[in-house]
Amino acid sequence: MRKDYEMIRIEMRVLALLVCVLGPLGTDAVEAVEAEAPSTNLALRKKVTTSAPQIGNHAPEFAVDGKAENDSTWWGVRYPASLQVDLEKSFQIDLARVVFYSDDHRFYQYTIDVSQDGTTWKSVADHSRDTSPSPWDGHYVKFPPIDARYVRLNILKNSANESVHVAELEVYEKGKGPAALKRDKDGFLSLFNGKDLTGWIGDTKGYVAEDGRLICRSAGNLLTKRIFTNFVFRFEFKLMPGANNGIAFRQPAGSDGGPKGEEIQILDDSAPEFRNLHDYQYHGSLYGVIPAKRGHLKPVGEWNDQEVMADGSKFKITLNGEVIVDADLSTITQTPQIHDLRGHPGLHNPAGRLGFLGHVPLSGLEFRNIRIKEL
Questions:
Q1: Mean pLDDT of 71-100
Q2: What CATH homologous superfamily does 47-181 map to?
Q3: What tens digit of pLDDT does each residue of 203-234 get?
Q4: Considering the domain 189-374 in this protein, what is its CATH number?
Q5: Apex CA 352: angle with CA 193 and CA 267, to 5°?
Q6: Of the residues 32, 106, 153, 351, which has the maximum number of CB atoms within 10 A of its CB?
């Protein structure tokens, strides 16, 4: 009892010291500390076995070395093949990250099984029909919490060749996945951390992170590293006079923006220089193809809320609570009032990157609260 009392006194002194140094810790501060706590990959450098012989010096151990890079990858002779990791003891897990060799084109089909004893297995994830290109940062696979010691990745197909290439297999205990995967109460994942351009590629010099805002200072393009198929994409933006930008929509992997994908217009409709545009050139329009309803932008200098929903061919844009585009892309036909559709090869892309497309002349434009929910 005396030891317990002394321990309590010590803990209270430590807490008092922290309060003196950091100030009072309210609920928000506690949540921030918890959000920044490092996650632990249970599979890191654990024992692995495979069902397929390795190719050259591309050993299975590369799949659990923590690098998740193309040049640190297990290569198996051919699919179907499995890679199994022993976590050394049982954990309640609910998340795996699978990173395959990526070239922005090939896709992999796979399943994940788990076991307590290495004999009786239960399937927790089935991606045997995936056809979207494997993203550079891998597949984050969420499943209901389950007790397991062994995790087995079954690679069923590589669209590029008969070999299998696994850069990393990560496994996380329930609720202890990477902070980057934390979603808000509505299920949205932040794409912009407000501090730097982690997770983005392209003109990372012309776009600047400042005080939680993404500021466009160039005519370049900034795209997500990840590829998205069906989603709800939300963001806020603030226009300065004459602002002109665009949202890259299902931009193909390997491209840096432009006609291979589609563009959703972002524009200061009130600017005198934009007085005589075509209907399909004003804010919110799927540029050159689908004109948006006008009159729902807030005055220049105020923050606007926009949402883009893409679910298969269904396409909807909501601006400040008003639906300004609601269309089915599969039904678009050529008319004299729109662009030549032969110049829009990306209109029916099933997946791609999202991002921002800068334009000349330059003018002030800011974004914040950039987030996505995959459907």
A1: 96
A2: Galactose-binding domain-like (2.60.120.260)
A3: 999 999 999 999 998 888 999 988 888 899 99
A4: 2.60.120.560
A5: 70
A6: 153
